[in-house]
Amino acid sequence: MSAHRVRVGIVGLQPGRNWAAVAHLPALRALSDEFEIVGVANSSRASAEAAASSCGIPRAFSDVAEMVASPDVDLVVVTVRVPTHFNVVRAALEGGKHVFCEWPLGRTLEEAEVLAQLARDRGVSAFTSTQSRVTPAILHLKRLVDTGFVGEVLSTSVTGWGRIWGGTVDDLKSEQYLLENANGATLLTIPFAHTIAALRDVLGDVSELSAMLDTRRRRVLATETGGFVPMDAPDQILIAGKLASGASLSMHYQGGAPRGFDGFVWDVHGTDGHLRMTGPTGHTQLVPLELWGGRGEARVFEPIGVPDDGIALEDNVPGNIARVYRRLASDLRQGTRTAPTFDDAVELHRLLDGVERAAREGKRVSVQAPNRALPTV
């Protein structure tokens, strides 16, 4: 690409309330030297015009097709719900645009594979937002493991709470679709997936696993109405497995919110030491993360500071998205591969497919889903 700012068209912006508004908009504005938001496309022209007017965006497109046809758009950012990803992303790729699509890339592995192949065929850059992988805490954890803080890694264990998928749902309009497994936006594909994507960057590939997926709550209380709505997405995820290094792996994610304790705990045990990462929930892509460690004869954890990476946004929601955008801009200009790509997304989808297969078949399965660890920049 030339040296001009990357010109961005956003698909799916609802001012003040949806993910594009609270995450992508402030992230892009924090990187205004790199990006220029030129337009928005929503489900209708009227909706796009309202969003553009409210957010100070120059242009409202009638639909995605008009956005894709515009020579003023370099990068199409797809922030609509997961079931809509496939058609919107496909249209952008077929129009020759670079694409940044929210994770999950598709409802299924098959959808993700088609989109990744289309991006390769069209010769465009295609990125996805597994932003846990670029958080300062995760990158520092990887640095500590790589430089021998714990020695040889013997085992790792993770517990996480999903906030949603518990006993209640507070916002039916935005959250009810997350309760339906067929929509592909679940406890497995969102917080669990973001976390295991980061875990593989730090500790390497998952080589084999057994799993249990269960829906213990079949009805969820809608606090707005006082009525119940059905849920068939899993609210319990347990896996036991082995990493390519030989280290043991265990993970347990459950729906709902913790009661005053850390809703995310990740332990890395080694021959020489022990590292722990904690956070308020299992959404490692969203929440502040803290590091703790102990080595040798030390019997208690000590806090470990995390280096600042220069992103000024204190809120982790737009801050972590901005970290992906910063890498994305560099990749477009320099031809590097520092941001998560569609090809990376396919392998993560493949790993989740392995989890579902192990749970469905009730046996230990081997996993062929090689991870490309993101470089430190």
UniProtKB/TrEMBL annotation:
SUPFAM superfamilies the UniProt entry points to: Glyceraldehyde-3-phosphate dehydrogenase-like, C-terminal domain (SSF55347), NAD(P)-binding Rossmann-fold domains (SSF51735)
Molecular function GO labels: nucleotide binding
Residue ranges of domain Gfo/Idh/MocA-like oxidoreductase N-terminal in the record: 6-125
Any single Pfam family the record assigns to this protein: GFO_IDH_MocA
Domain of life: Bacteria
Gal80p-like C-terminal domain span: 136-279
TM spans (from-to): none
Protein's recorded name: Gfo/Idh/MocA family oxidoreductase
Classification lineage: Bacteria, Pseudomonadati, Myxococcota, Myxococcia, Myxococcales
